[in-house]
Amino acid sequence: MTDSDRISLSTTTSSVRHEQVGADVALLLLRLIVAATMGAHGLIKVFGAFGGPGLDSFAKVLHGYGFTRGLGLLSWVTGVTEVGGSALLVLGFLTPLAATGLLGVGLSVVVSKLDGGFFEGSGKGFEFELTLAVLALAILLAGSGRIALDVNTPWRRHPFRYGLVGLLLAIVASIVIGLAF
Fold first, then answer.
1. 8 pLDDT exceeds 90?
2. Tell me: the pLDDT tens digits for 18-52?
3. CA 148, CA 95: separation in Å to the nearest integer?
4. Phi/psi of residue 174, each to 5°?
5. Cα torsion angle, 145, 149, 151, 154, sign
6. Does pLDDT of 161 surpass 60?
7. How far is the C-alpha of 52 from the C-alpha of 145, rounded, in Å?
């Protein structure tokens, strides 16, 4: 290898790293906004944080969405998934697991609100939940980025592969929730 080849190779490697910084920052911002939004919703549901109604009122909301059985358990599972998944997203730790859980919650809510129309103003719309579900899916398929505790894991290096498995799990979980509750 000649000196010019070494210079060319190191320049290429350096520019690739610099080009990836924007994607890493974008993935961090995406993780943080999804975590803040869904985490706050979970805290409102489970603990009544931010002046929210808490677990009993959330169970009534779930009943209004068409869920009829095990509403207390479903309330806890939903809230804990949102809070736990959000905490993991902030850290960029076990990102596929976190994004899968949040996607599963989003899918379940979207399916339960389908008959209410797309927009909130026309009933129990699902546009907000669909947006959050798609953002969770984007994180799942793209991975955490390098600004994360997952930086040296196989799922950070090959996120699409792990993302497809997570997508399948989220779909199955949503179906199971719909049938069980």
1. no
2. 678 999 999 999 999 999 999 999 999 889 999 88
3. 9
4. -65, -40
5. negative
6. yes
7. 33
